[in-house]
């Protein structure tokens, strides 16, 4: 294990590793420990009782954080004609069809979310090896393959985040910046947890929400009392 710096040791000392904190207290501690020179992201880790290797236990979806993410999200849209114009008017950063395919194939990806109209999926499918590993492949279940491109662009720009369970059964997601008021972070925390709980797959057996922790980008994790979270 790497040695902790003096600063990391000091921050770790502010958190009782054995204690389960209330949600508001955990958020307050995470904010207090965000002492980097940049505005750190407040992150949530949800440990779920699922095995994502089984298709019926995959947890994935999107949630709109009511107070936004604090991040500038670049949106790319594969569309033609009127739908391309609609995407541009809604604020999409990159819009195109075959021309955008060539740019992406050349290794230039200038977007954080990717949206496509259904008729473009034959084209976009050729980018599976490029977009797939980055989690950028448009998906009808996530609302990113749609004819309503304007609404999808506005949602992506306005605080919508995608969550997906990792191999170890953990979902990591940012819920805003350390500079956000505590009540805004709490509202976003509640929205994320609510969405993940509602997305409980049919194959999940036993306790679903097992562990919860909150941290800042550079700060120590703060364990949250799951009983309080489950009661939300």
Automatic annotation (TrEMBL):
It comes from the Bacteria. Keywords: Repressor, Ribonucleoprotein, Ribosomal protein, RNA-binding, rRNA-binding, Translation regulation, tRNA-binding. It holds the Pfam family Ribosomal_L1. GO terms for cellular component: cytosolic large ribosomal subunit. GO terms for biological process: regulation of translation; translation. Belongs to the universal ribosomal protein uL1 family. This is Large ribosomal subunit protein uL1. The lineage of its organism: Bacteria, Pseudomonadati, Pseudomonadota, Alphaproteobacteria, Sphingomonadales.
């Amino acid at each position: 294990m790497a040695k902790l710096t003096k600063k990391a040791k000091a921050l770790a000392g502010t958190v009782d590793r054995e204690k389960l904190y209330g949600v508001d207290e955990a958020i307050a501690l995470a904010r207090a420990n965000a002492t980097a020179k940049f505005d750190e992201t407040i992150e949530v880790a949800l440990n779920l009782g699922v095995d994502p290797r089984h298709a019926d236990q995959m947890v994935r979806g999107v949630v709109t954080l009511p107070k936004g993410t604090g991040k500038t999200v670049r949106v790319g849209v594969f569309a033609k004609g009127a739908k391309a114009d609609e995407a541009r008017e809604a604020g999409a950063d990159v819009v195109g069809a075959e021309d955008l395919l060539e740019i992406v194939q050349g290794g230039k990806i200038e977007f954080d979310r990717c949206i496509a109209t259904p008729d473009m999926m034959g084209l976009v499918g050729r980018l599976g090896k490029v977009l797939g590993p980055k989690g950028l492949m448009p998906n009808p279940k996530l609302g990113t393959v749609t004819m309503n491109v304007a609404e999808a662009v506005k949602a992506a720009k306005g605080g919508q985040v995608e969550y997906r369970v990792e191999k170890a059964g953990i979902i990591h997601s940012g819920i805003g910046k350390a500079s956000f008021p505590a009540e805004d972070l709490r509202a976003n925390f509640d929205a994320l947890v609510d969405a993940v709980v509602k997305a409980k797959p049919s194959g999940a057996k036993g306790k679903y929400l097992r562990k919860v922790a909150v941290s800042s980008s550079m700060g120590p994790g703060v364990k949250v009392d799951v009983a309080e979270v489950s009661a939300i």
